[in-house]
Design a protein that fits this description.
heterodimer
Chain lengths: 77, 192
Amino acid sequence: MDPTFTPNDLIRFLFHEMPSEEAHAFRQWLQEHPARQEELNRLQQTIEELRQVPDGPSETSVQLVLAYSRQTALEHA
Amino acid sequence: MEHKQVSDEQLVRQYVQGDEAALELLIRRHRQRVFGAIYMFVRDRYLAEDLFQDTFMKAIRKLRAGAYQEEGKFLPWILRIAHNRCIDYYRKTQRTPAVVTTDGYDLFEVLNLSGPAADRELMKTQSHQAVRELVERLPAEQREVVILRIWADLSFKEIAELTGVSINTALGRMRYALINLRKLKKQLKLSL
């Protein structure tokens, strides 16, 4: 891999943890390294699949927390 | 009161001043991330529901006690509480960790504990089930990073601090996790 960027930089880029200036340079670098662009695409696809799960909590759980807050607010006051 | 554009910090302040609606918005804004992180740790929907409630109840007590001091970082703060509640649960109900970390527990042990519960048919779709099964097959340290980054939404810096490794190690674990997940998917011929 090009000494300018490491494999870990692919991850930093994908998770938007790269400063904008560096990300811009990285995008340009990717254009010159199609194999890395392909790897990036594969990693991105896997991340998107992972983000499918899971759903949120039940409404009952939310309501129980809110009820607890209201109840203890009276005690706290 | 209009809450649509209100920051987490403002909601916290409003809640501490007695605005119950602010708490509801905070919960609804972050419930999926918090629940997702808990669920992926315990792999049991019923237990995750309990720990979700426990997490926010603990947060309520802390907020009222003035123990929230992380300006602009409500989500990492509540996720740390969630993480600790998961650990506390296993401390009380399961066993003593084999290897104690600087935090006093073995996160990897926790991640490996609730196997039988994972058999329950609780995920809503086959796709969810497949993803879960794939993640469970990852080495513990890779699974941990996936959970904390993708579902808990912690930054790699925060993950590094939480797990006691360097940022580069956390990044590397994520990369290998993604590569391994893709390989596993092919091996198992899963469609997600």
